[in-house]
Structure formats: structure tokens, C-alpha cells
Amino acid sequence: MNCPRCGAEARATGKEWKFGLFDAKQYSCDKCKKPFSAFYREGKLSHTVPKAK
Ligand SMILES: [Zn+2]
Description:
This protein is mostly beta strands. Helices cover about 0% and strands about 60% of the residues. It has a 4-stranded antiparallel β-sheet, with no helix packed on it.
């Protein structure tokens, strides 16, 4: 999963939760030192928060 802020490879933090119809996963970018969330629906990536540029 690439960071939506800088595009660097980010790693999963292991935090996962349900968000309505979505399965959410938290990732952490070592370059930005900031986490972001990815939302999956039916196993496919829907969007990230913040959104990719
Ligand atoms: Zn980043």
C-alpha cells in the first residue's frame, strides 16, 4: 500500500475495523511519520483517507 501523501511504501499497523460497508485498515508511512486509513469494499480498495493526490 502506497502512502497517499508522498507515495512511499507504507506498512500496515495491524489495526483493522469495520466502517459501514467497508473494511478499514490503518497504515503507517515511515516517510511522513503519519498514519492513513484504507477502506476496502468486497475485498477491493475503495479509497484512502486522506485521499491520494
Ligand atoms: Zn508518506
